[in-house]
Amino acid sequence: MLHLVEDIVSEVTGVNKLTMDTEFVNDLALNSMDVANLVCAFEEKFDTDIPMKDVRNLMQVRDVIHYMQKREQMSDTGI
């Protein structure tokens, strides 16, 4: 899933070298508009809605991966 997130971030920001610890704001210097565009791209690619209350917890690449994996598991179990 790292490669998928990396592809999405690259499409939105032009940055293509990420690690699990890469922080969107501190490391990539994304502003609020960039983050909003990134969230929209994640929502589209993963076919899900990300509530604003969850967005502020998605600070690193690992956060997005864990969040999406959790959403997939919840979807698979019908929760």
Summarize the structure.
The chain has 79 residues and is mainly α.
CATH topology: Non-ribosomal Peptide Synthetase Peptidyl Carrier Protein, Chain A
Outline the low-pLDDT stretches: none
Oligomer: single chain
Global outline: globular
Alpha-carbon Rg, integer: 12 Å
Largest sheet: none
Please name the fourth-level CATH homologous superfamily. Answer: ACP-like
Helical fraction equals 55-70%
Q: Report the CATH C-level class.
A: Mainly Alpha
| Name given to the CATH architecture | Orthogonal Bundle
Protein model, in words:
With 79 residues, the chain is an all-alpha fold. The protein has one domain (2-76): Non-ribosomal Peptide Synthetase Peptidyl Carrier Protein, Chain A, CATH 1.10.1200.10. Helix content is 59%, strand content 0%. It is built from four helices and no strands. α1 (2-13) crosses α2. The longest helix is centred in the last third of the chain and has 16 residues, at 61-76.
Structural key phrases:
79 residues; mainly alpha; 0% strand; single chain; Non-ribosomal Peptide Synthetase Peptidyl Carrier Protein, Chain A
Topology record:
Layout: H1 2-13, H2 32-46, H3 52-55, H4 61-76
Helix pairs in contact: 1-2
